[in-house]
């Protein structure tokens, strides 16, 4: 892992002070009078995330004109007070917490207040006020107490290219009875949007979107475009999110194409800042120039220990996908875990995937296959009830993690659930050009090329995973949802049993 930039370098790259960043997390301050706030500023919705037994982080970003080309969403270039309320009921008759945070132009008028003093393992409702406008309410949930073994229902999603189709999968996810959403990467895409890739029918875009995203203003605008989707907003308001990124939040595969290392560092800095501005993240994830600590743990009582990974920022090609510090943090946490289930929420496929259907072997170096020694060290821990949640490939895949991937008879030591994309690649099909290749690997038990998500139910005795898919997304958002496959993984017996 590279050294962190100095404070001077940080200010030069990101253009914002630590004190300004702190205001949006709920530090005491006063900003402006109610009359300074334009009408209807909550057009990007509300969100919550990273629940703990006594707290949760809330989020909103003021943007009365979300698609304003300057990236400021139609807000004046001055700070604004944003008040919040947390209640036990959706009518806000039993309010348990009130507070405020300062929405500053330096953070695109986003706020991330962390609300403490909540009861463990219970549902809450929240809303914001700015000026005379009140936001839609959101529903959130705290994690259970440390020794609780309460059941958990969650969804896994990734890869939401807005321009490739409607977020129909989110329309259905918003109707699911879930406690958490794990988003495992590619929340936005940096590509220019034009007639070649705008497959979402029924929409028109200004030419300002027909440019590869490179500047802070462009990243802010791209988030606003994606977050303008009502179904995405509905899922954010429906349950707390635990989010990590992949590559397209900055650039495809971090390729450094056509730029100097210094220019790419600057691009990372503004991309990381925009990511923080637009996600329900705690102050521990405040960006420092081209560095942002996103790997973290989320506990769910004694039921589950979730390790949220960052497999992009610390890569050394051919050597490490996590970086030495994150790898040690992960191994130490897994060894110390007393939870029934140990779950990794991360980006790229961990199972070995031989892409040569003949006698040879060919692997993708972008996935864990390009870092086999690191994967072997991780799997050698023999972590009890290991489950890996993955995205990236725009396909639904269920695989068993093996002690020796080249020996189908070797022990199964974990389970991998790969969520198909929400929108990327447009309409999918059950079978496609990659079906036979993936299924030729005997530890891959399921493959489906349609859009969708994975819904999981976790109890002390088993994990049930359901692959929820829609048949089309390009022409409209009305496709029904169906369950393409359903698996059970009993506690103490890793693998996939078809239901």
UniProtKB/TrEMBL annotation:
Limits of the Phospholipase D N-terminal domain: 44-142
PhoD-like phosphatase metallophosphatase domain residues: 154-467
The keyword Phosphoprotein is assigned to this record: no
A Pfam family assignment: PhoD_N
Domain of life of the native organism: Bacteria
Signal peptide: 1-31
Record bears the keyword Ribonucleoprotein: no
Protein name: Alkaline phosphatase D family protein
Lineage start: Bacteria, Bacillati, Actinomycetota, Actinomycetes, Pseudonocardiales
């Amino acid at each position: 892992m590279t050294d962190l930039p100095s404070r001077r370098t940080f200010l030069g790259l990101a253009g914002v002070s630590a004190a300004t960043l702190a205001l949006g997390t709920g530090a005491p301050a006063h900003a402006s009078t109610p009359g300074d706030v334009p009408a209807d500023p909550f057009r990007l919705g509300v969100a919550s995330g990273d629940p703990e037994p006594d707290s949760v982080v809330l989020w909103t970003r003021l943007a009365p004109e979300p698609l304003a080309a300057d990236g400021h969403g139609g807000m004046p270039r001055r700070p604004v007070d944003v008040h919040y309320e947390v209640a036990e009921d959706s009518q806000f008759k039993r309010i348990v917490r009130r507070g405020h945070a300062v929405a500053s132009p330096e953070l695109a008028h986003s706020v991330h207040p962390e609300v403490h003093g909540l009861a463990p393992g219970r549902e809450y409702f929240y809303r914001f006020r700015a000026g005379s406008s009140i936001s839609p309410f959101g529903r959130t949930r705290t994690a259970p107490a440390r020794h609780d073994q309460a059941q958990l229902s969650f969804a896994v999603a990734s890869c939401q290219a807005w321009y490739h189709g409607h977020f129909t999968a989110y329309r259905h996810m918003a109707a699911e009875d879930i406690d958490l959403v794990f988003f495992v990467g590619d929340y936005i895409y940096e590509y220019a949007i034009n007639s070649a890739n705008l497959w979402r029918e029924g929409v028109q875009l200004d030419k300002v979107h027909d440019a590869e995203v490179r500047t802070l203003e462009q990243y802010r605008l791209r988030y606003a475009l994606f977050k303008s989707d009502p179904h995405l907003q509905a899922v954010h308001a429906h349950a707390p999110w635990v989010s990590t990124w992949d590559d397209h939040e900055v650039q495809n595969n971090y390729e450094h194409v056509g730029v100097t290392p210094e220019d790419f560092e600057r691009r990372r800095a503004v991309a990381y800042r925009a990511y923080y501005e637009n996600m329900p993240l705690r102050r521990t994830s405040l960006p420092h120039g081209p560095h942002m600590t996103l790997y973290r743990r989320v506990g769910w009582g004694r039921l589950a220990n979730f390790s949220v990974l960052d497999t992009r920022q610390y890569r050394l090609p051919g050597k490490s996908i996590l970086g030495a510090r994150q790898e040690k943090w992960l191994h130490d946490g897994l060894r110390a875990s007393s939870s029934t289930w140990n779950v990794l929420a991360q980006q790229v496929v961990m199972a070995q995937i031989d892409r040569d259907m003949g006698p040879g072997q060919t692997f993708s170096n972008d996935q864990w296959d390009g870092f086999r020694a690191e994967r072997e060290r991780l799997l050698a821990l023999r972590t009890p009830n290991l489950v890996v949640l993955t995205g990236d490939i725009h396909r639904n895949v269920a695989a068993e993690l093996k002690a020796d991937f080249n020996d189908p008879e070797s022990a199964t030591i974990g389970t991998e659930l790969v969520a198909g994309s929400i929108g990327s690649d447009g309409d999918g099909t059950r079978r496609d050009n990659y079906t036979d290749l993936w299924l030729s690997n005997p530890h891959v038990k399921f493959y489906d090329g349609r859009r969708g998500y994975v819904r999981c139910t976790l109890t002390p005795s088993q994990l049930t995973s359901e692959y929820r898919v829609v048949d089309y997304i390009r022409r409209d958002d009305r496709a029904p949802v169906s369950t393409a496959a359903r698996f059970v993984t009993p506690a103490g017996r890793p693998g996939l049993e078809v239901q």
